[in-house]
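thread: overnight batch results

M.L. [08:02]
morning all. the overnight job finished for the chain we discussed friday. pasting input first so we're all looking at the same thing
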Amino acid sequence: MKKRIHILLFLFLITGLLSAAGTKEVETSLTIEDTTGNVAQLNGIPQRITFVGKASNMIADVLYMFPEAAGRIVGVGKTNQRNGEFVKVLDPDYDSKVYLEHNVGPEQIAVTQPDLVIVKNYLKKSLGDPVSQLDIPVLYMNLETPEAYEKDFRMLGRVFGNPERAAELIKYYNDEKNYVINRTKTLTDKPDILFIYHTTRDGIAAFNTPPGAWIQSRIVEIAGGNPVWTDSHPGGGWSKINLEQIAAWNPDQIYVVAYKEDINTVLKSMKDSPEWQELSAVKNNKLQAFPVDFYSWDQPDSRWILGLKWLAKQIHPDLFTDLNIEDMTRSFFKDLYFLTDEQYETEIVSRLGW
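M.L. [08:03]
and the structure it wrote out:
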């Protein structure tokens, strides 16, 4: 009798161990903190995600670096700056998702029945808080600096239950950034660089510079340039400057972006202007536009790492003779977004004009 009991007990223990070994623990609750200190309480890994609000394209371009994104995103914000919506290339079911304009309200967001809503951090008060009042978890993404990108990747690794992909992305960005830093950090002779954003409102053209902490300023510094505008613009948003100020700086090189306009048309009008022709940068053929595919490479979009390496080669070509911009770009879109060769040629190269 005792022997039978011992055998039954042994079988019970073995069965329990095998059952435990074959069962994957399912996380039924999840607490995630974003870079603002905001905490979202989730019932496990979210299966219905909505991203919305201004700068939605920047959020989307990071979300879709995770292979799970297409199957879990149900509501999408406007992502077209001028050249089309990149996410349509990445997500074959994009047109079936709920489309939400920039001025969307919390009730419209709630219609998508999200487990989680993701918005840009500066929209916390105007959009995020009202959504939270509907008992919908909200997380905020920063994306404004290289350091913020790393933190946002880690957060999304938890959102998608894929910390390994987050680690891959962090390594990629750190490796590419350090490639530039290691060649420019000891430079003592840095050319004066001006970065400007061209806008036209009511037929009047204006030039704007970013704050010193924004990614546009940071990539100029990392690329080995001296951003001439940052001392006079320490914080806030875009700041308008006039041609007199630009002439006073008289930078060695000028780089221009125009998110809502044809940058080639803008650049031509600047080069044809007698006033601009007096500047050293124009005389020396150092007035250039940032590359643009769907989006310009200078923004706190995922493409900022391309913009950094491209800019480093423009400023210091002798330091980056081994850098092939076309090879770099192809690898970026294939490795980070899983684009096929045909998609890359059709959607990216055609817009870059290479």
